[in-house]
Amino acid sequence: MNEMNDKPVAPVNFLHAIVEEDLRTGKHGGKVVTRFPPEPNGYLHIGHAKAICIDFGTALKYGGECHLRMDDTNPTKEEVEYIESIQADVRWLGFDWGKHFYFASDFFGKMYDCCAELIKKGKAYVCALSMDEWKDYRGSPPNPGKESPHRNRPVEESLRLFEEMRAGKHADGSLCVRAKIDMASSNIHLRDPVIYRILHAEHPNTGNKWCVYPTYDFAHPLEDAFEGITHSMCTLEFEVHRPLYDWVIDNLDNLPSRPRQYEFARLNLGYTVMSKRRFIELVDKKLVNGWDDPRMPTIGGIRRRGYTPEAIRNFCETIGVTKFESLTDVALLEFCVREDLNKRALRRMAVLKPLKVIIENASEVPSEVDAVNNPENESAGTRKIPFSSELYIESDDFMEVPPPKYFRLSPGKSVRIRYAGFLTCLRKEGDAIICKWSPPSAELKVKGTIHWVSAKHAVAAEVRLYDRLFTVENPMAEEGHDYKEFLNPHSLDVATAHVEPSLADVKPLAHFQFERIGYFNADPDSKPGKPVFNRTVTLKDSWAKKQKKE
Question: Which of 494, 530, 532 is nearest to 512 (CA)?
């Protein structure tokens, strides 16, 4: 049983199986301590959301703790803005790190001492080769490299140079510290990797205190050790880095703990890209409207689009945790979003392509009708909707000469109008259709139901119809093509809609189902009396039908 909520524990994945075995054997003293360690050099995306759910979710499940750590080892790319957005995104997903918020830079003094320890042991040295020169020495995976001419520099000399590096006596790139491991290793990351380098740049957390910084591969295992991390979980691209992770831990004395790294498959999602470099290109070239554009897979983007944290967590649980790389169908994500919004989104009516209806028996129509706010949630209650003798309906809901089995409006035919009885089309006059209204009690046999808004009371709203960003499932896999060639020209279409008056002053990010159209949310651009809505997801997987037609 899960002590958090007394519900049966879900079947374990391979990471949870490791944790449970460690708990059974008393490893780590029965503790479970995980961490989520983003680099604060950009905004988080939905791939990070999977990692967040794994890291925080594992700690929650086993009564442990999860640390939020900024891996801020490169001051040239890190900003306070990113630090703040990462914290906001993790909180939005529903997780809390409590008192366990850390920076890699909190440990720079200890890391410097660890590097000096390795130099004293003859396991690291100061190298003066430039990065271009090092390419010739490193070799390629099938061919061994050759030793740096500084590899056997006397320990005392390396220590002196390392101290001079810290004192700011050398220029960027002129010197670095390399771990002395194996220049013939088949793993290129073990061929004397850089573990410390010179960077004369102001750090967002430590200011100008340091001008030497550890590399990520050196800092990561040390951070885990200093924080007492028991299960360091990361994505599969770090699997080849694990031997270096272990080497750092194994070659240092007196570390407070001996963490272990475990890898899982990253999230690859169809019809988008999951690369920070591609995100920057899309934003810089104005192919999208910023980092929080609802077409972007950034957490800021999916939040603005109207995805809920509950839907994202459910999606991450549904796709599971494996060690096998695969491409996840974005339709599964959209399904999880629909499932969640169906329970919480208030129903409202909106007309995107208006056709005016004039009711001939105007004296008989009511001034308002009762409508259900959400049939899936009785506690949502009901509302009053203004009704009148002039309505807007969708132009697609009328055909003057309909095909067989057309169950919407046409001359002489009747339909049910949502919450308000029936309309019978009498004729078309100019740009409007003339209809007769009948109350809900009328004994009319109809097969179609359409939505509407009162033309006299409707509010104009901007509706942004977002769709998938690319036209192919894996734009990065199309050989001989630039991924930008597959940008969907209809990933954003904008319409002016007529919506019921209750939507005039909506709160930003509020969720709605526009009946028969899809799920929408109010964009932060909304202003009183001038609402703006984003299409979060269609009511059904319309994309699959569209692809079949093509």
Answer: 532
166 is catalytic: no
| Total Cβ atoms within 10 A of residue 391 | 30
Instruction: Kindly state the percentage of the chain with pLDDT values over 70.
Output: 96
Q: Identity (one letter) of the amino acid at 103?
A: F
CA neighbor of 393 nearest in space, from 354, 348, 438: 354
Q: Which helix (H) or strand (E) holds 299?
A: helix 299-305
* pLDDT for res 540: 87
Cα angle for residues 52, 220, 252 (degrees, 5° grid): 145
E strands, 147-301, are 176-179, 194-198, 212-214, 232-235, 261-264
Q: Can you list the domains of the chain with their CATH numbers?
A: 117-214 (3.90.800.10), 350-451 (2.40.240.10), 460-549 (2.40.240.10)
pLDDT recorded at residue 1:
35
Tabulate helix, strand, coil % of the chain (nearest 5): 35, 25, 45
List 266, 356, 383, 516, catalytic entry:
266
Residue by residue, DSSP assigns 112-176 as HHHHHHHHHTTSEEEE---HHHHHHHH-BTTB-----TTTT--HHHHHHHHHHHHTT-S-TTT-E
pTM > 0.85: yes
Asked whether the predicted pLDDT for residue 10 surpasses 90, the reply is no
Residue 485: active-site member = no
Q: Which of 20, 31, 39, 478 is catalytic?
A: 39
Q: Considering 31, 153, 166, 276, which one is annotated as catalytic?
A: 276
Neighbours of 86 (CB within 10 A): 22
Structure tokens at 223: 């951070």
For residue 498, which phi and psi values (nearest 5 degrees)?
-110, 120
User: If pLDDT is split at 50, 70 and 90, which confidence band does 5 have?
Assistant: very low
Please indicate whether residue 550 is annotated as part of the active site.
Answer: no
Average pLDDT value for the chain: 94
State how far the Cα of 489 lies from the Cα of 36, in Å rounded to an integer.
36
